[in-house]
């Protein structure tokens, strides 16, 4: 437990990165880790690129992850994974939601959404591609994609001894508890 | 009990535990969550003030009345509140008072990255700088004690990574603090020259005593490690230094950064071979160290622009970089944008079409400067739209030309500091035309209530201040309220404004698309009728896209606002339903 781990969650404003990171940090705290996080609120939430940084271990100093220091990048969107890839440690893992969300410049036809992103990711890093949006949609609500990804992450980090379902229950509105617990279980199964 | 808390949340917890009973703020990233969290403690009366100056003045009043009080704001908010702050430094407090400033190095959500530590020195009030969430909570308590013991307001300075960083906080009980009795004291509180002259002497004497305090206060401490390198640091930079160096170096960690502990700094400098200061933004500590005649390395290595991170410090001092993956793919940027269904869109579309100068302001509507709308010409500070448009118009007129000048300002910003600009127009017989984008909320900072929304921070009903009536009362001749989802209404009002010399205000009143319930509706492009002219893309709606030559509207994002339908020259967009009339 001594070694500090760094997880970078990146996505597009409104995708639920903050909820996923809240659940993660609360679970980590419960199992005795020191936890630090950094989020950026405000302007970027209007459909902009967002990131949340989570670091945990016996004693954590910086809440901010430097380039080359992330053990895992959880990308809620493909292009964001590539944007942040230089934050990944050599030998680190990318968990990527395969969804494509075009930015405005692409929507209005000024720029192209880059091609072959998944191949680029795979050739540069250990990559786990997940159709989290489709899975969540299958469960009835695409918004649970964040918790599907969280399930994949938890399994990958080997943090199975924490009662995650309890933490999820504490962090989501009552009527979405079942949905999110199912989403989390799906995520666990995928890995 | 332990909890992972945002720095802002921990400040709120500190206010609760250390007996604050009055708190006021105007929202501003990264400080907003302080008051949002304080509002959850029923023991504290809390409110959104219309601006930071009012928030600080209200906190001053509460302090003089005998309560422990707090006011919070983002860094630029302290510019607005600087006037009361500087004289409050003279009067001192009754109940303890903490002023929180949350700076934004790197400008994640700000128009500049000023370093507010200079305010403490300038106003001659003590300053504390927490590094993490636990310290955010603890330092509120220390600040309140200092405030009462030394009879001074205290500045608590956060930065984005502290305010929006999260860490583990040990929670405690609320310590009940009695209101201090209020005693009328004219020489202390009435700052007419004769009294202020005496109070300035008190301020200087107080500083001397605070200089002794800062030498011995436990939050200024040396962490001995290797003595080859010594680093003086504070705030978030302390955590980055520890991250990079651990115990390899010795660290002088400063929790109280005004006044600075000269003796402690000297002692530390004498005990290490090479001395550095690691601090974000300005060489605030470094200047002090140099003034003591001590040799130090600082801004020649550590950037003055933007925020720091462990990697920057590693590279600057250790000359090392972590190995990392790097790819040669250029990915398009993803700046924030106006939401689908945003009521600001239609106004910008019309203004763009008219090709008139539009002085802008700060809020979601600043995004109207982005392509494809590019509808606003300026963004300086809150309120500068209306007043700026007045100066612009007068300058043009004085040079013998005539041109209509417009401005756009949000409802919250209008209450914050737009009203005085409007008074300027009426009083000085200008005719620039303010358009008030009344989306019924303070949207940019995450949906706070404001004097026009009918609710308070504590969730109570409140009178809705009527912008139209207010404008009329000020003396504006023509006040037009338009539905921002109806382009014709907007255009008619703009045309009317272009053709009159009367003072005129346009109020575009329609709710933010993110105010629940989510507006229901859907617009669809009829592919048979679509001539692929691309007009619908010119409104910059994230729901509308062009892919492989086909234009389409994403039904998940579309709110049925119908603005795209109104700009389509071929009647190719069908809207199933749309947002109801808003008047
Ligand atoms: C002096 C100052 N205080 C606070 C802020 C932070 N801030 C930026 S925009 C904004 C609110 C804008 O609300 P409104 O005018 O209603 O526009 P909307 O975002 O709703 O379109 C605030 C509080 C600031 N930039 N400057």
Q: What report would you give on this structure?
A:
The complex is a heterodimer of chains A (191) and B (583). Chain A is α/β, with parallel strands linked by helices. Chain A contains eight helices and six strands; from the N terminus they run βαβββαβααβαααα. In chain A, strand 4, helix 2 and strand 5 form a beta-alpha-beta unit. The model of chain A has no long low-confidence stretch (mean pLDDT 94). Chain B folds into four domains: 215 residues, Thiamin diphosphate (ThDP)-binding fold, Pyr/PP domains (Rossmann fold); 99 residues, Rossmann fold (3-Layer(aba) Sandwich), CATH 3.40.50.920; 165 residues, Thiamin diphosphate (ThDP)-binding fold, Pyr/PP domains (Rossmann fold); 57 residues, 2-Layer Sandwich (Alpha-Beta Plaits). In chain B, helix 1 crosses helix 7. Chains A and B meet through helix 1, strand 2, helix 2, strand 5 and helix 3 of A and strand 1, strand 8, helix 11, helix 14 and strand 20 of B. The structure holds thiamine diphosphate. Chain B: Pfam families: Fer4, POR_N, TPP_enzyme_C. Chain B: Heterodimer of the IorA and IorB subunits.
């Amino acid at each position: 437990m001594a070694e500090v781990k760094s997880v970078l969650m990146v996505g597009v404003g409104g995708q639920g990165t903050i909820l996923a990171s809240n659940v993660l940090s609360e679970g980590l705290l419960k199992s005795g880790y020191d936890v630090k996080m950094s989020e950026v609120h405000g302007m970027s939430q209007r459909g902009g690129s967002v990131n949340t940084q989570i670091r945990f271990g016996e004693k954590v100093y910086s809440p901010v992850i430097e380039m080359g220091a992330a053990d895992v990048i959880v990308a809620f969107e493909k292009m964001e994974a590539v944007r942040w890839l230089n934050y990944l440690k050599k030998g680190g893992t990318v968990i990527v939601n395969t969804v494509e969300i075009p930015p405005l410049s692409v929507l209005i036809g000024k720029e192209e959404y880059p091609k072959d992103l998944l191949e680029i990711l795979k050739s540069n890093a250990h990559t786990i591609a997940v159709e989290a949006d489709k899975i969540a949609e299958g469960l009835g609500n695409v918004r649970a994609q964040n918790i599907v990804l969280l399930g994949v992450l938890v399994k990958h980090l080997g943090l199975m001894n924490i009662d995650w379902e309890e933490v999820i229950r504490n962090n989501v509105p009552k009527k979405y508890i079942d949905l999110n617990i199912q989403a989390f279980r799906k995520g666990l199964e995928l890995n | 009990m332990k909890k992972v808390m945002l720095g802002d949340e921990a400040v709120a917890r500190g206010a609760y535990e250390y007996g604050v009973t009055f708190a006021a703020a105007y929202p501003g990233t990264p400080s907003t969550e302080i008051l949002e969290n304080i509002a959850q403690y029923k023991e504290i009366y809390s409110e959104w003030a219309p601006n930071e100056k009012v928030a600080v003045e209200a906190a001053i009043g509460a302090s003089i009345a005998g309560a422990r009080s707090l006011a919070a704001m983002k860094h630029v908010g302290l510019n607005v509140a600087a006037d009361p702050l500087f004289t409050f430094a003279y009067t001192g407090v009754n109940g303890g008072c903490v002023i929180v400033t949350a700076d934004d190095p790197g400008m994640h959500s700000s128009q500049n990255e000023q370093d507010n530590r200079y305010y403490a020195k300038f106003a001659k009030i003590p300053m504390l700088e927490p590094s993490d969430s636990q310290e955010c909570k603890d330092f509120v308590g220390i600040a309140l004690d200092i405030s009462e013991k030394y009879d001074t307001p205290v500045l608590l300075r956060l930065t984005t990574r502290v305010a929006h960083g999260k860490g583990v906080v040990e929670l405690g009980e609320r310590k009940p603090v009695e209101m201090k009795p209020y005693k009328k004291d004219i020489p202390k509180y009435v700052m007419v020259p004769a009294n202020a002259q005496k109070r300035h002497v008190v301020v200087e004497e107080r500083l001397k005593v605070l200089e002794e305090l800062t030498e011995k206060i436990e939050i200024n401490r040396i962490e001995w490690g290797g003595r080859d390198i010594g680093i003086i640091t504070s705030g978030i930079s302390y955590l980055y230094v520890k991250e990079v160096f651990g115990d390899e170096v010795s660290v002088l960690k400063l929790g109280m950064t005004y006044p600075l502990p000269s003796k402690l700094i000297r002692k530390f400098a004498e005990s290490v071979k090479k001395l550095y200061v690691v601090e974000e933004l300005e060489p605030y500590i470094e200047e002090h160290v140099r003034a003591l005649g001590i040799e130090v390395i600082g801004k020649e290595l550590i950037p003055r622009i933007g925020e720091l991170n462990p990697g920057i410090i590693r590279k600057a001092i250790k000359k090392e970089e972590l190995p990392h993956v790097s790819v040669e793919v250029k990915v398009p940027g993803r700046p924030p944008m106006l939401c689908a269904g945003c009521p600001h869109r239609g106004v910008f579309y019309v203004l763009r079409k008219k090709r008139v100068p539009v002085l802008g302001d700060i809020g979601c509507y600043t995004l109207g400067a982005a392509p494809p709308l590019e509808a606003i010409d300026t963004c300086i500070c809150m309120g500068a739209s209306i007043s700026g448009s007045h100066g612009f118009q007068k300058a043009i007129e004085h040079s013998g030309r005539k041109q209509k000048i417009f401005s756009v300002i949000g409802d919250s910003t209008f209450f914050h500091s737009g009203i005085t600009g409007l008074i300027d127009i009426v009083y000085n017989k200008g005719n620039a035309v303010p358009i008030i984008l009344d989306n019924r909320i303070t949207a940019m900072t995450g949906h706070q209530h404001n004097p026009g929304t009918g609710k308070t921070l504590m969730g109570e009903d409140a009178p809705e201040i009527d912008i139209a009536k207010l404008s009329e009362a000020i003396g504006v001749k023509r006040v037009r309220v338009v539905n921002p989802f109806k382009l014709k209404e907007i255009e008619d009002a703009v045309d009317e404004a272009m053709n009159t010399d009367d003072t005129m205000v346009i109020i575009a009143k329609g709710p933010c698309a993110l105010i629940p319930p989510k507006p229901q509706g859907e617009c669809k492009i009829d592919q048979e009728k679509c001539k692929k002219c691309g007009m619908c893309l010119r409104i910059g709606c994230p729901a509308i896209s062009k892919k492989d030559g086909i234009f389409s509207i994403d039904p998940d994002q579309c709110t049925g606002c119908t603005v795209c339908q109104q700009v389509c020259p071929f009647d190719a967009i069908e809207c199933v339903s749309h947002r109801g009339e808003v008047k």
